[in-house]
Design brief:
Elements: H1 3-24, H2 43-58, E1 65-69, H3 75-84, E2 87-92, H4 95-108, E3 112-116, E4 129-135, H5 144-154, E5 155-168, H6 178-191, H7 199-209, E6 212-218, H8 220-223, H9 225-234, H10 237-246, H11 248-255, H12 257-266, E7 269-277
Parallel strand pairs: 1-2, 1-4, 2-3, 4-5
Antiparallel strand pairs: 5-7, 6-7
């Protein structure tokens, strides 16, 4: 990654992860509210259901060595390690996140390894993991091709890559408008994103790098209610106090939650899924 972007992402998550855990717990990702997005759920359960639905969708029933790319404070890594009795490794750009994930692993007595590493230049041998998991980290990557290529490189033959990431709508029929680009630019600015692409563009990259049995899905409807819940939780007394002590970047992100909410409503933001195998 470019040093400036890496530093921005690191600082963003160093500053905001403690608040997120305080308000939401260990899972730093969307929740799943049924295929139609209408199932009422407790927020943490919705996040766990997203993990389970992703596994079901990709047909994953076992795993031995798991890599969680963009692991946050270890929510998915520890959940998957415990579920499968697997050896899990998580990487993040944030030392604060990595240290907190290690602490959570010790307390939970779940064996997992967490480290600070760049997803575009991962410190692992080829063919190291039978499940490479990327849950809402692809949007941060400044080179989507290299990101997927690195995930493919460290994946064992026969292993599965699963990615869920923020996308923009497909542009094959209607190109992005000036207004679309302005709205995306605001989201990029506050969430430290270089750019996002459409799910068909991800599919083309996956085909190019050699993934087989590629599946894709658009779960935008299923996860869209998440942003309403986040907005409600962001303005409780405890969250407001946490925001005020977390710094300006975190405050900006909170004030811009409506941008994501409206992005889903307009059909501009998509929650894209992709999985495939290495043969």
């Amino acid at each position: 990654m470019t040093s400036t972007l890496s530093e921005q992402i690191q600082q963003f998550y160093d500053a905001s992860s403690g608040l997120w855990e305080q308000v939401w717990g260990e899972h730093m990702h969307h929740g799943y509210y049924g295929a139609d997005g209408k199932t009422q759920k407790e927020r943490r359960q919705a996040q766990i259901d997203l993990i389970e639905e992703l596994l079901k969708w990709a047909g994953i029933t076992t795993a031995e060595k798991i890599l969680d790319v963009g692991c946050g404070i270890g929510g998915s890594s520890l959940y998957l390690a415990e579920k499968f009795g697997a050896e899990a490794t998580g990487i993040t750009l944030s030392p604060v996140q990595a240290n907190r994930a290690k602490e959570r692993s010790r307390v939970a007595q779940i064996s997992a390894n967490f480290q600070v590493a760049d997803a575009l230049n991962m410190p692992f041998e080829d063919n190291s993991f039978d499940l490479v998991w990327s849950l809402e980290s692809g949007e941060h990557m400044p080179d989507k091709q290299k990101f997927l290529a690195e995930c493919y490189r460290v994946l064992k033959p026969g292993g599965t890559f699963i990615m869920a990431t923020w996308c923009h709508r497909p542009t094959d029929q209607v190109p992005l408008t000036i207004d679309d680009r302005k709205r995306l630019a605001e989201i990029y600015r506050v969430y430290c994103l270089p750019y996002v692409i459409s799910l068909p563009e991800y599919t083309a990259i996956a085909q190019e790098i050699g993934l087989q049995d590629i599946q894709t899905a658009d779960w935008s409807t299923a996860v869209a209610p998440f942003w309403n819940v986040v907005i409600d939780s962001a303005f409780t007394p405890g969250a407001i106090f946490g925001l005020l002590t977390s710094g300006w970047t975190t405050i900006q992100a909170a004030l811009s939650l409506g941008s994501m909410q409206q992005g889903y409503k307009r059909g501009l933001i998509k929650f894209g899924l992709l999985c495939g195998k290495k043969v």
